[in-house]
Amino acid sequence: MLKINKLRVNYGYVIALRGISFHVDENEIVCLIGANGAGKSTTLMSISGLVDKAGGTIEFKGSDITGTKPHEIVRMGICHVPEGRQVFPSLSVEENLRMGTISVQKPTKQYIQQKLEEQYTLFPRLKERRKQAGGTLSGGEQQMLAIARGLMSDPELVMLDEPSLGLAPIVVEEIFELIQGIKRSGKTVLLIEQNASMALSIADRGYVLENGRMVLTGTGRELLVNEDVKRAYLGD
After folding, report:
1. How confident is the model at residue 32 (pLDDT cuts 50, 70, 90)?
2. Which residues pair with 81 in a beta bridge?
3. Which of 14, 51, 125, 164 is deepest in the core (most CB within 10 A)?
4. Cα(50)–Cα(34) distance, rounded to whole angstroms?
5. pTM of the model
6. CB of 99 within 8 A of CB of 119?
7. Which CATH number characterizes residue 144's domain?
């Protein structure tokens, strides 16, 4: 579904990505792990068209999207839920969700209602709080809202940047269960996560980024038991 080939990104004189290559197959959960500054968020922003590329190519479903504009990339079926949730605090939960259809060309009332019901099925707590202002939700609920808003455009590929950041352990488990639910609904997930052990435990495959280079790959299970990964990222 997604193929990255020798992708390079610079921020001025700083080299953020040094020619990384990887792929994501349909209906997989693939995670990128690495220390802060390794290039994980830059990778997602490159795929979304939010940063300029210095070289390499990005293909989605066989089409080269390297130079495509961000709003066109969303319409192609890629959703990016950035780090920090970024919900609209003064809008209600339902109004936040409706904002997720802004990239859909001429959505009908029926389409919007269908997508709302899908999100309320996946995220029952959002249905309970649908009239509540987004800014009054807990951190975990705001993260659910950010993910659900992304799903309102009916994407094929869902990219999640640090969905568990700053959340209590019990809420983190709930978020990861929801990510598995997204996969079960037929979608593909590309996940960035500091909580490497949780991410690898649900991932089909994983990649390790260090200083803008891809240094290791394997199944989630293989990376969980890899001694270098355990030492560097799992606290063992």
Report:
1. very high
2. 160
3. 164
4. 21
5. 0.92
6. no
7. 3.40.50.300
